[in-house]
Write a structure and sequence with these properties.
Layout (H helix, E strand, L loop, with lengths): L1 H33 L1 H4 L3 E4 L2 E5 L39 H17 L22 E2 L1 H15 L3 H10 L1 E2 L10 E3 H10 L3
Antiparallel strand pairs: 1-2, 3-5, 4-5
Helix pairs in contact: 4-5
């Protein structure tokens, strides 16, 4: 039995060191060297301090800011530790009620806006953490933001256009606007 136990334990320790230490350290080191921003969490810094990540949405509710997609995470919105969708199908009455409530809230926040509300402003993403909205969703909000800030709507629309990201590599996905980056640029404007 001793003759079998010693090689088994030696192999266990060796493989644990390789797969549990050496490999993760090597991959982390390579990622940090090749993709330093992504390896650090894609943090957005302002005055040298992190204000968020470009990969995780934040809950904006002030009328002076653009609002992102609804988040289905609990107990608080955009909780990265609880990433998940609502798992409610299109025929689920709870989803229908939630969307109706979101539509009413958006209409109440901007009663003069009679344009159709883009879907991504009333439906949560699969992860509940989506940091982006469609350009249509951002443009839908420009009137409210301009009015709340006392700025011309054309200036706010130009800011949205400047922060609209195209398809990845020109062919994957759709055009999108990162809400945090847009709001930071909005806060940097002189009123």
């Amino acid at each position: 039995m001793k003759t079998l136990l010693r090689p088994a334990l030696s192999l266990f320790v060796l493989l644990s060191a390789i797969t549990g230490l050496a490999y993760p350290l090597a991959v982390t080191g390579i990622a940090g060297a090749v993709f330093p921003e992504q390896a650090a969490g894609s943090l957005i810094l302002q005055d040298g301090k992190p204000v968020g990540s470009s990969l995780i949405g934040q809950n904006f509710s002030d009328p002076k800011h653009f609002w992102g997609r609804p988040s289905a995470t609990a107990p608080q919105p955009y909780n990265a530790a609880a990433s998940s969708g609502s798992n409610q199908g299109p025929l689920n009455p709870a989803l229908v009620d939630a969307v109706k409530g979101r539509v009413e809230a958006l209409r109440a926040a901007d009663p003069g806006n009679t344009a159709p509300i883009p879907t991504d402003l009333v439906s949560a993403s699969a992860s509940g953490l989506d940091p982006h909205i469609s350009p249509a969703a951002a443009l839908w909000q420009t009137g409210r933001v301009a009015k709340a800030r006392g700025l011309p709507e054309a200036q706010i629309k130009a800011l949205v256009d400047a922060h609209t990201e195209g398809r990845q590599w020109g062919l994957l996905g759709e055009a999108r606007v990162n809400v945090l980056k847009l709001n930071l640029a909005l806060d940097a404007l002189k009123n």
